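Final report, closing paragraph on structural work. Over the funding period we assembled a curated collection of sequence-structure pairs, and we close with a single example.
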Amino acid sequence: MLRRYHVVAVSVPITYNRHGDHDPNGKMLVLAEHLDELRRQVAERPAEPVPLAQPLVLRACLGDRVRVAFENRLDQPASLHVNGLTYDVYASDGASVGANPDTTVVPGGVMVYEWHADRLGAYLFHDLADPRAGDAGSQVHGLWGVVLVEPPGSRWLDPETHRPLAAGTEAVVEHPLLPDRREFVACFHDEAPVVDRDGNTPVDPLTGQPDATHAINYRAEPMRNRMRAIMQGRCAGCVGEDVAHDSWPFGDPPIVFRAYRGDPVTLHLVMAAIKESHVFHLHVHQWLRDPDEPDSNVIDSIAATPQQVVRIDLLYGAGSFQRAIGDSIFHCHFYPHFHHGMWGILRTLDVQEDGTRRYPDGSPIPALLPLADRPAPPRPTPSRPGFPHFIPGRFGQKAPKPPLAIAGGRAPTPLEAAHMDARATPGAVFANPAPAGAPVRRYRLVAIQRPIVYNRAGWHDPQGRLFVLAEDEEAVRRGELEPEPLVIRANAGEVLEIELTNKLPATFGGTAFIPEVETTDCGLHVHLVKFDPLVADGSNVGWNYDSSAGTGETIRYVWYADSELRVVYFHDHLFATTHQRNGLFGAAVVEPAGSTFHRPADLAPADSGTRAAILHPLEPDYRELVLAVQDFAPLFDRDGNPLDPPPVPGLLDDNGVMAVNYRSEPLRERRDRGDNAYAFSSWVHGDPVTPRLEGYAGDPVRLRLFSGAHEEIHSFNLQRYRWLEEPRNPDSRRRQQQAFGVSEAFTLDFNLAGHGDRDFDVLWYFGAIDDLWLGCWGLVRVFGQAVPHLAALPDRPPPSPRTRPLPAPTGHPPAPAAPPEPGGPVRQIRLVAVRQRLKYNRFGDHDPEGLVLIPEEELPAVRAGRRAPRPLVLYASEGEWLEVRVRNEVPPLTPPVRPAVPVDAPWTPSERVGVFPQYLAFDPFTASGGAVGFNADATAGRGGEIVYRWRAETGVGAGLLFAGADPRTHRHHGLFGAVVVTPPGTVPVDPRTGRRVAFGERVVLHHPLLPSSRSLTLLLHDGAYLLDARGNPVPDPGGNPTGGPPLGGSTVDEEDRGQRGFNYRNEPLWRRLRRVPRVRHVFRSQVHGDPATPLPKVRAGDPVVIHLLHAADKPRTHSFLVHGHRWLAWGAATGGATIGVISVGDGMSLWLEGGAGGWLRRRGDYAYRSGVLRWHLEMGLWGLLRVYPARWGHRDPRIGWAGAGVAPVPPRAREPAKAVREPLGPRRPGRGR
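Its predicted structure, as stored:
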């Protein structure tokens, strides 16, 4: 079916909330038939959000063609580029890329785009005539939308009237064979350029400083407006953050999605943001991480990066398993982000709303028609008026406390009693989630404040806040028990009855980080388990009760662990932005049913603690360690000086430091005691104070990760061991790295493979240099012989008696050790580490002290300038043994080390070199690539050589080669590479010559029995310190009118500093625009020439795999997409359009669906690029995939050798491709020059 839409790009003021915050230069997409009504609504109600000022959401059925007549009524060129659907790149790319025709639209022009709705899901479309992310661009002002592809036969209706819906973020989707459902679209976007009602920059009333705005669907409810009302005397008894989400004092936020209890719900999370990753969390509800995989993990939070899209199918529908009613907040879990307005509500109703009633503040309740294939909910009656009308609150005041919750609190009113669950109990009054007879486990928790010391250097938090067990409170206060995040345990199928007593001081702060504020309440908001949200959400949301405990109060909660949920995160929700980064978070670990919990040392019973041995009568016993990362902790040094404080107390910038389990081992405190290659050595410095996982060789392990606070994505990396991304799905991706944000949790399930009876250490670390520098690293210690402080798991063979003494620090570097003998034939590889000038682009940007691993046979050509240095990409066959010799020819590097990191200090670059691989097996004692723990020295000094033996174990894909000697210096200068593991029998060949090769970023992979393919390896890296052609530092990104960096200085956080690249190359947009300031042609090769980044040339239909790996160096995450293509990630059955949350250590193999040119097999230039416009794309993270027509038996000199079984598809009836600088197709009407 052909679906036609006439879409108009217009400039219109967009008001984000009833407080008058607005974007006076808003740009949006609207259907032509709605344009006049939109202008009328904006003119009549300029100071409030209007219904038609929302992201444009189009719909089509699977198999449809979507034809969009795009009319540009802006005063600048514009376009529509869609991510992930199939289209003709010549006609419908919505961009001016490479040598393709220009498919952008000049002011007043019209162009017709056609997209093939060939996969279910949501697809972002946006303007690529202007890819700038600053205020001068279009993206930040709202010029984007979504097309939803529904099952064939669907129709979409207005939820209030059930009339056909032309477009909208909320719909009822009906289908003759599938259940009807409610569908919501939540477009997250950040850095919104709003001004206040008076046209001024919004200001935080507590700090007097400019305040940011983060939004959903052109709507935001930032705390500053509510805080200002409180300071002006509104809402007596309200403090501030305690009512940030409360509708009783202020009315509803501008986004409220509504459903009836039990309604099927699909929510599409669309990342229309330009800069930040965000973590979406919806209270009360859960979904599968992969909605099409029943063995996928159950989650209720998910991180996503700009231009990524996530489908969320709520398990059990609105109200979840317990059929709860009330308001469930959804928000970004980065605390400054929802403080700045990025939140809304899903309202689950229990009685019909026909449009005749009003909320407690007098605002009308819109009608909501029931789904046609479900029983209609009852109508309201005086005795059962439904939510929220039975709650005894008063508008203008803080929400009331719930009945049967606070110890010594009130009984229910008659109206409340009429709505209570038939099995109501304290803590589960209106929805009791627990089945009758379920076993009960009870915990009494206390929230306290006490100083916490984080390391031996004296870094400390004088106002640490944490949860403790009531029985441990006095021991923790006296210092007899070391503070750590509280971890409690339960079995699947159990009920947890929780009592929380709030013993926190009622005031907090008064430091360099935060002014003195009141913190009068504390709640316990929990994830994943089932509970009654009206009384046990641990929050104060919408028209719900305030389910927190005031100072000195005790509140009761009931949680039901319905399945093996693994890590269940909990935290305070009343003052989370204020004090959660001080440590006020914890977790409940839900173990397999029938488990018992024990201390690792002696197997005594223990229900709490970050370390445990978990025993089970039917399943293998395992060891468990829980690691909770926190960021921007407001710490002070031992002399009381603040560590990286904000310029003004209370400013929500990225200030403070990072830690794991209230511990850190900063590299700055282990530097310059000899060569810095030994910063990780326990021989030199002693063991780090961070948590250490200990076990015997062969022990099963479950390493549990979660992020407790505050505003970052963190990238956990582990040497040597790997795990399944989805523990219950053996076909899921194998990993050695996992990125996650606040409230996300992951379980890493693996065995501690040993190496004889020798003890050894394995490094775990958070890969971004900011985290690593600040001390987020530690050890896994594997014992080959028995130790007295660690009991053996009962179902494992006992370890052999100890014959060797345990090591102790000596203050001196360790000696090297010979690698163990291989288990089969060995392939010899000789590499040389050298310093080499790395030229990133034709503008002259370069790293004069670049570091490169080069095959020994290629070194003369590189030094003579005949071959440009590139990151090492090594190919190995599955099961193959490699003996790798690395010779160190790196001369001394010049300090200081740049770019900066938080709490920076002088660092002397190491003169030693070492490397270690991902996904390959090796002996950690001899081949860690560094000097880790009490291992041997696995580095080579200047002029020396080190020998490693690696084995390509089971599993095909790509992994990184990391620099292990000096992560502070070597990585960001380029000392990294990749290993691509291929099926046995695969032969990599040079695509230009057809000769077999062992190395190369672009090869043809030939196999006698499997389809051959073209392989491109992209090593993404950031944090590079480059000089320009005149020898001046290339400035850090900023926001000048061309979207490039300022002329000097730095305007950004440490995590954004430095330059970006693919394989030591980049193509900054700002440099192109300085030469030719025609924004819509910034990607155009006819104007600027081809980009410096890798440019693979292939035939239409060629099988293509892109190995994408993030080698270095900063915390800001990335996303990646290829125009006109989707992919099968790791060969899995589910495809994708945009990969997100890419962080240091991540890697994936992306097989292009349909091969080069996509399913249409169209020739042309296809951009591959970052989806993060600010600043990854602007700073040069993009390139071209050039696809030529397919010709059987044709050798094309532009592509190179096409042998090795790469069969081009039969030729189409199209003209031959012309030279690269000429258009590959005719000019089209509706575009300008």
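Residues 414-564+584-592 form a domain with the Immunoglobulin-like fold (CATH 2.60.40.420). Confidence is low (pLDDT under 50) at residues 1039-1050, 1130-1134, 1201-1233. We thank the funder for supporting this effort.
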